[in-house]
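User: Please predict the structure of the protein below. I'd like the answer in structure-token form so I can feed it into my own downstream comparison script.

Assistant: Understood. Taking the following sequence of 182 residues as input:
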Amino acid sequence: MLGITGAPAAGKSTLAATLAKALAPDAVLVPMDGFHLAASELHRLGRHERKGAPDTFDAAGYVALLHRLRANAEDVVYAPEFRREIEEPIAGAIAVPRGVPLVITEGNYLLLWPQARTLLDEVWFVEADEQARLARLVARHMAFGRTHAEAEERAYGSDQRNADLIAASRDGADLIVRSDER
């Protein structure tokens, strides 16, 4: 199992998807984002404005899925995916058949959650030029309905606090991958 991590908009999803597509059918992509808590739960917990922070995910559920995938004992394991167009996770959206040679998982906190890290054979850390990363992040937020001001507030606010936390985990990576896409 290969983990790919990095700050929001560093390019980890692009790298993971490119690898999975190039190696298909011998690789399946299982993003950590499917373990975002639902908006209704984030509102109940008072965490909706911090969506994307470590405590806004079902980390235990993600780790349980990694255990199931590592055990390779079931004919198929179904994983959730996150749909940005509705800002919600969807259960059972990704089928991972038994015996698939490579599971690629990507997400922000693979190196911060020790239980997840121990289940991954290797973790790559994707880093990007900070200006380019922030520009991509603002553009992403705007593409999904935020105004420019709201997108910048999110990117430079809670997203940046998460990026700083993620950057502190960089030394735990097996490989640093530089993403220079603009």
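That's the full token string. The beta strands are 2-6, 27-29, 76-83, 88-97, 102-106, 122-128, 175-179.
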